[in-house]
UniProtKB/TrEMBL annotation:
This is tRNA dimethylallyltransferase. The record marks 110, 133 as: Interaction with substrate tRNA. ATP binds at residues 9-16. Residues 34-37 are annotated as: Interaction with substrate tRNA. Monomer. The gene is miaA. Substrate binds at residues 11-16. GO terms for molecular function: ATP binding; tRNA dimethylallyltransferase activity. Catalyzes the transfer of a dimethylallyl group onto the adenine at position 37 in tRNAs that read codons beginning with uridine, leading to the formation of N6-(dimethylallyl)adenosine (i(6)A). It catalyses: adenosine(37) in tRNA + dimethylallyl diphosphate = N(6)-dimethylallyladenosine(37) in tRNA + diphosphate. GO terms for biological process: tRNA modification.
Length: 342
């Protein structure tokens, strides 16, 4: 059975740095599971790599400190990239990594992507309905929300404030609700293969199953108290603000990237683009950004409860990384039926 390592955790927990170290030690390659890192030009705000890293950009992957990272720069800003695309790309890339006798290491903070990878997702094959989307795009955010609430009240109760204010996500949820004529669930197991759905999405990736029974996912989570994570992310933000994040977002605006798309990305891209366009003052942008990213961290932590099996490590504790590596060594190289793993 193929073993795949997954590193999940909130923003600023050091996931990528840890994954690079593990890839070096256990002979692996990384695949990003971050919904914003797939976009070209969203480097600083999405936190693709640390400033101290040695980076070589290649077509299809980055080489960071001697380790390949797949999943960066897949599409242009404004282009649609769905969970379907993530599953397709990731499954294909995992096969390639396993084919060269290395361990795939999935790393990122988009819990929905990781949950879909492990368990599958029953809505992934629902195609985009452009005619419906054109009609829905004429509605206000509140009108979209009210329409969804009538179609799928269970879904709307589960949505956080960010989702309720995001027209793109509301439209997709309406699309799914109309297609299924039932409550939308993101925890179902997909039995369809990507090859059967290839006519739905115009991606050129190789057709592979959405979920393989021959894959053993080893999921590790990085966590800490909220106050500890807030302190880390505040430092993380300050570093990026002083290392070109404003210029990066200004460049996207200069390239005529749709302002609503930047707003829908949330966090840094929302508030700094609003500041650049004169919609808010610098102080308001920073205050709102700090509040939003703290809320985002809390939402990321809720995914820990949604995974059936996860090994959690508190990054504020001493020797946590050494303990994680010890556990991983056991899981990767010993038969759990013969050896008791605590």
């Amino acid at each position: 059975m193929n073993k795949v390592l997954i590193i999940y955790g909130p923003t600023a927990t050091g996931k990528t740095s840890l994954a690079i170290n593990l890839a070096d030690k256990f002979n692996g390659e990384l695949i990003s599971a971050d919904s914003r890192q797939v976009y070209k030009g969203l480097d600083i705000g999405s936190g693709k790599v640390s400033y101290s890293s040695k980076v070589e950009r290649h077509k299809g992957y980055w080489n960071v400190d001697g380790i390949k990272i797949h999943g960066f720069d897949l599409v242009s800003p404004g282009q649609r990239f769905s969970v379907f695309d993530f599953l397709n790309f990731t499954n294909t890339t995992m096969i390639q990594i396993i084919g060269v006798k290395k361990i795939p290491i999935i790393v990122g903070g988009t819990g929905f992507y990781i949950k879909a990878l492990i368990d599958g997702i029953e809505t992934v094959g629902i195609p985009a309905n452009q005619k419906l989307r054109d009609q829905l795009e004429k509605l206000s955010t509140d009108q979209l929300y009210q329409k969804l609430r009538k179609l799928d009240p269970k879904r709307t109760k589960m949505m956080n404030e960010s989702d309720r204010q995001n027209p793109r996500r509301l439209i997709r949820a309406i699309e799914i609700a109309l297609s299924t004529s039932s409550s939308v669930s993101h925890t179902g197991v997909a039995t369809t293969t990507i090859s059967a759905l290839s006519s739905v999405e115009s991606r050129s990736y190789r057709s592979v199953p959405l979920r393989s029974r021959m894959t053993n996912y080893l999921l590790f989570g990085l966590t800490a108290s909220n106050s500890y994570l807030y302190s880390r992310v505040d430092t993380w933000l300050e570093e990026r603000l002083s290392h070109g994040m404003i210029g990066e977002i200004r460049s996207l605006a200069d390239q005529k990237v749709d302002s609503q798309w930047l707003d829908d990305l949330g966090l840094e891209y929302r508030w700094i683009s609003r500041y650049i366009s004169g919609k808010v003052s610098w102080q308001e942008a920073i205050d709102r950004l700090w509040g939003d990213i703290h809320s985002f961290i809390r939402r990321q932590k809720t995914w820990f409860k949604k995974f059936e099996e996860i090994y959690l490590y508190d990054i504020s504790k001493p020797n946590w990384q050494k303990e994680l590596e010890k556990k991983l060594d056991l899981l990767l190289f010993y038969d759990s039926k013969k050896y008791q793993i605590a």
